[in-house]
Amino acid sequence: MxxxxxxxxxxxxxxxxxxGSRDESRYxxxxxxxxxxxxxxxxxxxxxxxxxxxxxxxxxxxxxxxRRPWVAVDAASADEIAEVVMRCxxxxxxxxxxxxxxxxxxxxxxxxxxxxxxxxxxxxxIRIEDASGHLIREDTRVALCRCGxxxxxxxxxxxxxxxxxxxxxxxxxxS
Length: 175
Ligand code: SF4
Ligand code: FES
Hints:
The chain has helices spanning 54-58, 78-85, 159-162, and strands spanning 33-36, 40-44, 93-97, 111-114, 120-129, 135-144. By secondary structure, it is mainly beta. Strand 1 (33-36) and strand 2 (40-44) form a beta hairpin. The longest helix has 8 residues, at 78-85. The radius of gyration is 20 Å and the shape is globular. 20% of the residues are buried. FE2/S2 (inorganic) cluster binds at residues 118-119, 145-147, 149-150, 156-160.
């Protein structure tokens, strides 16, 4: 019997990959900034920041983009800073407590929030891989592009604003 040709597939061919490389993040941001005192370290990865301003609105004395350094960890308590850092929807901001305070909890249930005319805010235990199974990012908060215009896919980079992306009416469950 004649065999049908196999068509193109989206399945990754992992047979030829060096095993050790599969869990290396290929998209580590070049720049990761740290702001610290003896109670808390705040890290900021500008590559993921879309200037959603949750941090500025939450604690303007700590997060001030017109000041250098723009994060002043001595301007509020470590508890207050940690609470606002966890509001950052993109994962650009993280913290580590050095004073025995609670570290960021890992959400048990994943959620995807459709932002009007904007990205998908995903929270949970998130692992993003490329088609070959290589780790792109592990995080508890990410903003994923749904306008198609981001220069940092799969992450939102704020381009939806400049191209006037409109998400249209969303379907909601129930009546
Ligand atoms: S909340 Fe996060 S994404 Fe928004 S401006 Fe602050 S660091 Fe950037
Ligand atoms: S949704 Fe923000 S760049 Fe696409």
